[in-house]
Design brief:
It is built from 20 helices and 14 strands. The model is unreliable at about 1-25 and about 30-75 (pLDDT under 50). The longest helix has 28 residues, at about 530-560. The chain is an alpha/beta fold. The relative contact order is 0.12. Bound molecules: 6-O-phosphono-beta-D-fructofuranose. 6-O-phosphono-beta-D-fructofuranose (F6P) binds near residues 204, 206, 258, 262 and 403. 6-O-phosphono-beta-D-fructofuranose binds near residues 203, 258 and 318. Its EC number is 5.3.1.9.
């Protein structure tokens, strides 16, 4: 396989640059400042934030009342003179010529002083990124390398073993996709004689990238259509399977889980396997696993002889796995040019390796995030692509940014409660939903506009009014919103691409992956672990264990002659868990709603009054 090497595209913007206009300086909270924040037992975090400016405080909902005068307008040192703004725009415009990608940071009001103060920290971040790309243990808690950048430039992998793993996997993906699309590999009992559908089972990083890319890039009539099970919601699962109907026989089921043990994904797999059994189909002939070698999923797929298995690498995190088999296999099966995605990502990576900040788009993004959110996530990132096909970009970025940056402790072990909140859907749709609040309401965000210059494929456009197309309206809405927000001191970044293509989508993914990496170094946190997720998973496990105990107690009482309905207090006492009575109530209500427990007396609205028993006595369980 030819290696996918990056193509360096020098930015043309440097010739146009001057120093930025001198704007009032916003204080930089240093990493040290954040690192030494004491731990307060109350857990309240508002007082952990660096002091806000008087202008900020004047806008706080805590200090305003319906009778008080409107808050004094926050100025933030935002430049309003159109000619000066134009110069700032031109001075700071980043262009990646070959990718046709522009980054406009002119509507973020960072100052020269801020830049000067950030420069050494950015240089440190660049150095850390270089080490990361060379194979340093950049995820120290898990003792792992962080290698998603090698996926699109395998020759950068720190050794030939890893390089070959990447190249061989890409070859295998392309060959498998070709064999499926060309019906060289067929489903055993489909009247269609070929695979027509993909059912992707996975969650988080094992779903969001493939979902985003499918929405962005799948052709109108893809060789295989894709649908997703990305939750353990039984009704959602049933819906997906019902939608497939008889086409289940020609469905390729791709089960994606890096760990191979995520409960939601396991449940999805078991549900799909049941549907296969009920339809008289052999799941193993239609199942594909993407997971780490020797995971539970990998072992099951190997032992059951599934159609194919593709590796997930230890050194690729779920939220940065779009360019691994996780993203590439589903994309290739939909007829998307995955090599172009890799080329786009590789070109963007190359551009982001420069240590000249203004030529480095990922660094510019990180810098803007730092400025806009005071380096402590004080403002949310609203992502607004003005293109329907990029609808899921904000959802994809939500995990990439929030799971990476949302951390309690920094790399020195100090509590910092970091993160940046990300949300957004698409423009101009959102203009009719929440832009009202963005323009006039609480000032707790900055916006990223994603602009796509090409409205339609050439030759398809038409004017719905003299001189005006639908695309002109979309353009006008974007530019109008950008201006209106800025006029009210709301800062924004604009990323512009020519078209939504595999190359530009690959570049966007790479741009944000690197921006997150750089920003994480600026705030001194580990972007590559997710210890917080474990707490919820552990708690869910404990609840399911409690449910089993409740069931067993109820079963025992329901097997008595006559049946002994129990109050919640009695159940809690017999479970030796009086402190869990609220959870026991919730468990009972959930089981009752699903006809698995019967309420003998009272109703769920009056918890103290209810007495519960099971409809059936399971004698076997009594003697387990
Ligand atoms: O791919 P896996 O191991 O099933 O994990 C799915 C997701 O769960 C998490 O580990 C935690 O939510 C994510 O980081 C990950 O993308």
């Amino acid at each position: 396989m030819a290696s996918i090497s990056g193509v360096c595209c020098p930015s043309s913007s440097s010739a146009l640059r001057r120093s930025s206009p001198l704007l009032p300086r916003k204080p930089i909270p240093s990493t040290r400042h954040a690192a030494t924040i004491p731990i307060f037992p109350s857990g309240r975090s508002s007082h952990l934030r660096p002091a806000r400016s008087i202008a900020d405080i004047s806008q706080s909902p805590l200090t305003s009342s319906s009778t008080s005068p409107p808050p004094e307008k926050k100025t933030l040192g935002i430049e309003k003179d159109p000619i000066k703004l134009w110069h700032r725009y031109v001075d700071w415009l980043y262009q990646h010529k070959e990718l046709g990608l522009f980054l406009d940071v002119s509507r973020i009001a960072f100052t020269d002083e801020f830049l000067a103060e950030m420069e050494p920290r950015l240089q440190k971040a660049f150095h850390a990124m270089q080490e990361l790309e060379k194979g340093a243990i950049a995820n120290p808690d898990e003792g792992r390398m962080v290698g998603h950048y090698w996926l699109r430039d395998p020759k950068r992998a720190p050794n030939s073993f890893l390089r070959l793993q990447i190249e061989n996997t890409l070859d295998a993906i392309c060959k498998f996709a070709y064999d499926i699309i060309s019906a060289t590999i067929k489903p055993p009992s489909s009247p269609a004689g070929r695979f027509t559908q993909i059912l992707s089972v996975g969650i988080g990083g094992s779903a969001l990238g493939p979902q985003f890319v499918a929405e962005a890039l799948a052709p109108d009539n893809p060789p295989l259509k894709i649908r997703f099970i990305d939750n353990t919601d039984p009704a959602g699962i049933d819906h997906q399977i019902a939608q497939l109907g008889p086409e289940l026989a020609s469905t390729l089921v791709i089960v994606i889980s890096k760990s191979g043990g995520t409960p939601e994904t396991r449940n999805g797999l078991l549900e799909v396997q049941k549907a296969f059994r009920e339809a008289g189909l052999d799941f193993s002939k239609q199942g594909v696993a993407i997971t780490q070698q020797n995971s539970l999923l990998d072992n099951a797929a190997r032992i059951e002889g599934w159609l194919a298995r593709f590796p997930m690498f230890d050194w690729v995190g779920g939220r940065t796995s779009e360019m691994s088999a996780v993203g590439l296999l589903p994309a290739a099966l939909q007829g998307i040019d995955v090599k172009e995605m890799l080329v786009g990502a590789s070109m963007m990576d190359e551009a982001n390796r420069t240590t000249v900040v203004r030529n480095n788009p990922a660094a510019l993004l990180a810098l803007c995030w730092y400025w806009a959110s005071d380096g402590v996530g004080s403002k949310d990132m609203v992502v607004l692509p003005y293109k329907d096909s990029l609808l899921l970009f904000s959802r994809y970025l939500q995990q990439l940014v929030m799971e990476s940056l949302g951390k309690e402790f920094n790399l020195d072990g100090n509590r910092v409660n970091q993160g940046i909140t990300v949300y957004g859907n698409k423009g101009s749709t959102d203009q009719h939903a929440y832009i009202q609040q963005l323009r006039e309401g609480v000032h707790n965000f900055f916006v990223t506009f994603i602009e796509v210059l090409r409205d339609r494929p050439p030759g398809h456009d038409w004017e719905l009014e003299p001189g005006v197309t639908s695309g002109d309206y979309l353009f006008g809405m974007l530019q109008g919103t950008r201006s209106a927000l800025y006029a009210n001191d709301r800062e924004s970044i604009s990323v512009t691409v020519q078209e939504v293509t595999p190359r530009s989508v690959g570049a966007l993914v790479a741009l944000y992956e690197r921006a997150v990496g750089i920003y994480a170094y600026l705030i001194n946190i580990n972007a590559y672990h997710q210890p917080g997720v474990e707490a919820g998973k552990k708690a869910a496990g404990e609840i399911l264990a409690l449910q089993k105990r409740v069931l067993s107690i109820l079963n025992e009482a329901s097997c008595k002659e006559p049946v002994e309905p129990l109050t919640l207090d009695e159940i809690a006492e017999r479970c030796h868990a009086p402190e869990e009575i609220e959870m026991i109530y919730k468990i009972v209500s959930h089981m009752a709603a699903n006809d698995r427990a019967l309420i003998a007396e009272g109703n769920c609205g009056s918890p103290r009054s209810i007495k519960v028993f099971l409809g059936e006595c399971n004698v076997d369980e009594l003697y387990d």
